[in-house]
Amino acid sequence: MSDTAVPSARAGGYRPNQAVIVLGLTATLFVLLGASLPGFLALGNLFTLIRGVSILGILGLGMAVVVIGRGIDLSQIATLAVSAAIAVTLVNSGMPVSVGLAIGLVIAVVIGIANGFLISVIEIPALFTTLASTLFILGVTRAFVVPHYQVFLEPGHETFLTLGGALDNGLPMPVVAFVLAAVALHLFLSRTVLGRFIYAHGDNAQAARLSGIATRPLTMLEYGICSAFGYLGGAIMVASTSLIHLQIAESTMIFDVILVVVLGGVSLVGGRGNVLSVVAGTLLIGVLLNAMTILNLDLQTQDMIKGTVLLVAIMADSYFHPRDEETAKQGD
Questions:
Q1: 264-323: pLDDT as tens digits
Q2: Sign of torsion, CA 134 136 137 141?
Q3: Bridge partners, residue 15, by sequence
Q4: DSSP assigned state of 15
Q5: Span 149-156, mean pLDDT?
Q6: Closest CA to 185 of 273, 264, 126
Q7: What stretches of the chain show up as alpha helix (H) in DSSP?
Q8: Pick the CATH number of 5-330 from 1.10.3470, 2.30.29, 1.10.287, 1.20.120
C-alpha cells in the first residue's frame, strides 16, 4: 500500500490519504488567513503559533500510540499537570533540576502503566479507567502535594527554563523537542518489533494474542508512552510560562489532543495512522486555534467550532477506515 492512498472497499478504487488532505487544507487555510486576518503573519504571532503547535503535537504523539492500539487516554492532561506540578515542587524545595524532572517522568509513566494494568488485566474499559484516574490523581495531588491549583517555578532554575527557550539561531526549543519526539516515535513505530506489535494489537487484538504477542504488557507500554509524552509537553509548558495550573486538567485541552489525532488520520478503530497523521492534525488545529484567538472569539463559539470539526473528523475516520472492514476481521 502506498503512503498517499488507501484502498476503497466501497468504490473499488483508491482514496487519498487523510493526512495529505489535511495538510492541503492547512496550507489553504494558512494562505487565506494570512491574506484576510490582520496580524496573523506577524512574526510574534507566528512564534506563538509554532510554540503552541509544538506542545499540542507532542501530546498528540503520545495519544496516537494509545489510539493506534485501539485505546483512549482521557487522563493524559491530568497526568501532565500532576507530574509537572510535583516536579516543580521538588525543584523549588532545593532538589537538583535533573532529579526533579526525572522523578516527575517516573510518576507520569507509573500512572500510565497503572492505567494500562487496569485496562488490560482488570479489564475495565479504557474510557472509565482513564476518567476515574483523572479524578483520583488530581485529588491525591491537591490533598498531599499541591494544596492550591497552581505552582510557580521559583527564580534561579535556568536549567529548567532552557526547555522553553530558544537555540542560538532563534529556533524555539519546543519546536526542537517536537521534531525530535516525532522522529523518535516514527522510528519506534516503523522500525522496531514493539512498534509493529502495537499496530497488530490495534488492528486485531484477538489475532495478536493468538499469535503470541503479550498484549497485556503491550497495553501498559502504550499508556506509559502516552503519559511520558504528556509529561514532556507539561515540562515544556512550565519552562515557557514558569508555572503549571492543575485546572488545565479540567479544560477542553484533552479534546484538542484527541481532535488532532483523529483529524490527522489515526483511526479510532485501531491499527491505522502514523506520525505524519499527528503532524497534519496538529498543524491544522494549531492554525485554527490561533486564528480564533486573534479573532477574539468567546469560549462558547470556540467550543462549537471545535466540536463541529471533531464530528467531521470522526465522519472522515469512518469514511477512510470503514467499520465493516474492521469488524469483519474480528468476527463481530
A1: 889 888 898 999 999 999 999 999 989 998 998 998 898 899 889 888 888 877 777 765
A2: positive
A3: 6
A4: E
A5: 89
A6: 273
A7: 18-36, 43-68, 76-92, 97-120, 126-144, 158-161, 173-191, 193-203, 205-210, 215-241, 253-264, 275-294, 299-320, 323-330
A8: 1.10.3470
* 110/81 Cα distance (integer angstroms): 14
Measuring CA to CA, how many Å separate 73 from each of 138, 144, 148, 299, 318?
15, 24, 25, 24, 20
Q: pLDDT (tens digit, 9 = 90+) per residue, 219-273?
A: 999 999 999 999 999 999 999 999 999 999 988 899 999 999 999 889 888 898 9
Residue 135 sits at the vertex; the CA angle it makes with 132 and 140, to the nearest 5 degrees, is 120
153 secondary structure, DSSP code: P
| 332 vs 328: CA distance, rounded Å | 6
Nearest to 73 by CA among 20, 109, 19: 109
**Domain boundaries defined on the chain:** 5-330
Contact predicate 263/309, CB 8 Å: yes
| Grid cell at residue 84 | 509537572
